[in-house]
Amino acid sequence: MRTTFKHIAFPREHGSWALTFEPLILALTVGFSSAGLLLFFGAAFAFLAHQPARVLISDKERPPLAWIMFFAYGLVALVFAIFYLQQADLNQALPALIAVGLMVLYLVAEYFDLHRALLTEMMGSVAMGLIALSIVLSAGWPWNKAWPFLLLLYLRSLSTTLYVHFRLKLDRKKQRSILWPEIWQILTLLIAIVLRFNEAIPFLAFLSVVILSIRGIYGLSPWRNPMTVKQIGLAEFFFGLVFLILSAVGYFSWT
What we know:
This protein is mostly helical. The protein is built from ten helices and no strands. α8 runs antiparallel to α9.
C-alpha cells in the first residue's frame, strides 16, 4: 500500500470534502460566533485525522507517519474542542457531542470494512449536520429556527448521499432500476414544501432543494445521460455550491 505523505495526510475522496465542509461553512456563514469558529476548526482537524486513522486500520504495517499525523491532527482538534466547550453551554454543545459518538461508530464500521455500506456513508452526513447545528446554536439561534436549518442540511446531504450511491450503481450497470431512492428524492421535495409553507426556511433555501430534487429525480431516471465518476463528482460540486450560495443569501435576506 502507498504510504506517501499525501496519501496519509489528506482524504482522497473529493466528495467527502464537500459533504463535510459544506454544512459547516453554511452554518458559520449564517450563524457566526467565536465559539462556532472554534468548533469549525475542531471539526475540520477531526475530519483530517480520519485519513491517517483509515490508513492505520487498513494497512497492517501501521506506517509511523500515519501515527504521527493521526495524533497531530487529533491533538489540534482536541485543543479547539476544549476551547469551544469553555465558551458553549451544554444545550449548544450537545449535538456536537452526539456527533463525536457517531464518528467513533464510523471508525468501528470502517474497522470491520463496512464504510461503503449506505447506512455508514449516511452516518458521516448526520454527524456533520449535528456539528453545524451546534455552530448556529452557539450563535444564539433559538431551537425553533435551528431545527429546520438542520432538516435543510439533511435534505441536501442525505439525499445527495443516496443519489450518488445509486447513480454510480446505475451507470456501472450494477443495478437496473431504482425505486425507493427516487421516492426519497420526491419525499425530500415534499418535506421542503412543508418547511417553506410553514415559513421555517427562507425561499432561496427552498429553491435550492427544489433544484437538488429535480437533479435527483432526473439523474436516477431511465432518461439520464450516463456519467463517469469524475463527472458526477464535478456536477455534485456545482450543485453543492448552488445550495450553499442560495441558502446563505436566503438566510441573510430572511426577515
